[in-house]
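Dear Dr. H.,

I hope your travels went smoothly. While you were away I took the liberty of generating a structure for the chain from your last submission, since the lab meeting agenda had it listed for discussion. I wanted you to have the full record in hand beforehand rather than looking at slides cold. The sequence, exactly as received, is reproduced here:
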Amino acid sequence: MIVLLTAATIAAATAVGVWAERRKPQAAAGAARRSLTLMLYVLLPPVIFFNIASSHIDVSHGVGLLLGLLASSLGALTAYLLASRVLHLSRAGAGAVVCTVLSVNTGYLGYPTVPLLGRDQLSTAVLYDVLVTGPCLLLGAFAVGAALGTKAGEGPRDRVRAFFTRNPPLYAAIAGLLAPDALAPQVLVDLSQALLVAILPIGFFAVGATLAENAEHGDLPMPPPLTKPVMVALGSRLVLVPALLMLLAAPLIDLPAAYRLMAAMPSGVNSMVVAHAYGLDMEITAEAVTWSTAIVVLAALVSLLF
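The corresponding predicted structure, in token form, is as follows:
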């Protein structure tokens, strides 16, 4: 049921974004950009702070988590080389491809689908979300945005400054790691998770509006075009990263099933936040999020039939 509700929310929010951009293009585009700014500076920081502060990290899973970080990094590096050296994309385009590999939807889709493996896997999935997805987004994707984006400045000093000044979720994560349990009572954790639910439709509204805004004259193609940059993002995100994780883990550990599932989750809507903040290619980002989400949601829905 949760998977169905998540899929319906994503579809409805995306459709509203497309509809709004078609009816009032300027207003919808402005609303999409304001919603991404709202997510970056208002919604994400408390969600990250309270959920990290309340997490209990089991170091016995450390090897698998380190391999998850390594697999994600290698997948992102491969995506960058393909995007920049083979497809010859601009810096902003290559950065968008890499960010859609590093930013993963392990929260909105990962948590609802993990119970398909058994409820005992949920705590393991939370560890992956906090200790693999979190650093890949806050350190990896934001750093890529600052390094390759068109709105991050010209020289290295400007780009370093942009990384630290446009990354409030990073400071929320550091504060969450340092905060005592008393600063994260259950009621505030619950409220922050309610914010997490609110982020889903807001983010996919921005995806829909961006898809419509960047469509050529005429009807919006749906599904959006499956371009070469998007295929690189999809292959890296949905195939290469989970394959690398299983390959790296095979001689070392018995990889938890939750890690395999979380590694194969789609590109996260937070990649839209990064693309907007630093000036990466919004069209590539929105199309990669849309395609990867559709593929994973369809696979999850099919799995419910068996």
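Two observations you may find useful: The two ends are 15 Å apart (CA to CA). The first helix runs from residue 2 to 23.

With kind regards,
E. W.
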